[in-house]
Amino acid sequence: MKKVTLLFLCTAMLTACNQRSESEQPSDNDLLFTELIQTAEQQIGYQVKLIEESGKIMNPRTIENGYVHYIPKDDWTSGFFPGTMFYMYDLTKEKKWMDAGIKYTEDLDTIKHLKWHHDVGFMINSSFGNAFRVTNNETYKEVIVEAARSLATRFRPAAGVIQSWDEDRGWQGRRGWMCPVIIDNMMNLELLFKATRLSGDSTFHKMAVSHATRTMENHYRNDGSCYHVVDYDKETGGVRSKQNAQGYAQESAWARGQAWGLYGFTVAYRYTHDERYLTMAEKIYHFIFTHPNLPEDLVPYWDFNAPNIPNEPRDASAAAVTASALYELAGFGMDGYQEKADQIMATLAGDAYRAIVGTNGNFLLMHSVGSIPHGNEIDVPLNYADYYLLEALTRKIAAEDK
Ligand code: GLY
User: Fold this and answer.
1) Into how many domains does the chain fold?
2) What are the DSSP calls for 183-205, one per residue?
3) Which of 8, 54, 317, 337 gets the most CB atoms within 10 Å of its CB?
């Protein structure tokens, strides 16, 4: 898709290709990605239409028992649907998507005060982070900084980490943990880094650096794979245990966790230029792409060590997060990463993963997994799979247009 502008892609490729000479013909993949954008316009457009017709503001996450499951504002995935609108705006330049993004984002304003779990980073960065990027509205900047203040209340100085879950509440509240930190938390650091850039208060940046460094030291095995949960002692800062919650077994490699880590260290490198984070990302890349259980189409099983491979569900969300991270890493000069990302994207844009218009609860991607150990969301669409897919596509096109 070299030197092809996005607008051209969206509006002219399919009709124009008949008139062009052999050498100018778009490749099969170009056509696939054009179809992906068209599918996204229809699926997400219909999703928005249905919500608008209800007269309420609703936030779709997945399908449950055949119906779209809408979530409350404090659900960790609530920022992704609004954020998806901003990527649709990037991809089409149609104002209706920006307007919808603003509407659904502004509905989440009160989340900036959320202090009872770490996911405020995911939630605010995907919604208000994109809203600020696209509109430059100063009000959104204040929301980002306020949300970072909320996240910072979870920083535990002795351990040097942001505590992910409260030790005594929620679905993991009875595990005897003192200060559980999950690999997913690497994704919340972007909010902290951004808040320092926007406010000039270096406290957030320092917390993010401390968290990333402790995670690098304690979450990772020698082979470049990671545990899901590391429990710290809040008083001494020592590690109490290393475990898995959403993966198959204590010593297994939960697929989305590997993707969160890859993406998280990429962001940490973006904001710090600390080579250790880039080396960490490289190690994770090596683990994922040399693993014998990674299928040829590059969409991982839900856990690299799941017991019944090849008869295990795939996780398209992990593949989408990975692809998006790889495009950024390719921009940092990592050789071969863009090609891997392109391969993942070609798979996800193809028939095996891209939903037929009018199906799949109007989500874009099929075949993701929430949490198999908890019996949740197995082989379903997920709003964050769609979000990272469209982010990856935006990054791919931006890189090729340079
Ligand atoms: N952050 C929760 C998950 O990845 O399922």
Assistant:
1) 1
2) GGGGGGHHHHHHHHHHH--HHHH
3) 317
Closest CA to 86 of 50, 124, 135, 37: 135
pLDDT tens, residue by residue, 180-239: 999 999 999 999 999 999 999 999 999 999 999 999 999 999 999 999 999 999 999 999
Is 303 considered catalytic here?
no
Do 189 and 211 meet the contact criterion of CB atoms below 8 Å apart? Answer: yes
Please indicate whether residue 184 is annotated as part of the active site. Answer: yes
Nearest CA to ligand 1 atom 5: 370
Furthest CA-CA distance within the chain:
70
How much is the pTM? 0.94
In a domain, 241, yes or no: yes
Of 119, 165, 244, 246, the residue with max ligand 1 atoms within 8 A of its CB, to mutate for a pocket test, comes to 246
Is 1 part of a structural domain of the chain? no
Identify the domain containing residue 224 by its residue range: 6-400
The predicted structure's pLDDT at residue 168: 87
Question: CB under 6 Å to ligand 1: residues?
Answer: 76, 184, 246, 256, 370
Probe ligand 1: pick from 80, 119, 120, 184, max atoms within 8 Å of CB? 184
Please check whether residue 41 lies inside any domain of the structure: yes
Q: Is residue 110 part of a domain?
A: yes
Q: Model confidence over 27-85: pLDDT tens digits?
A: 888 899 999 999 999 999 999 999 999 999 999 999 999 999 999 999 999 999 999 99
Two tokens at 56? Answer: 């309420």
User: Which atom of ligand 1 is nearest to 260's Cα?
Assistant: 4
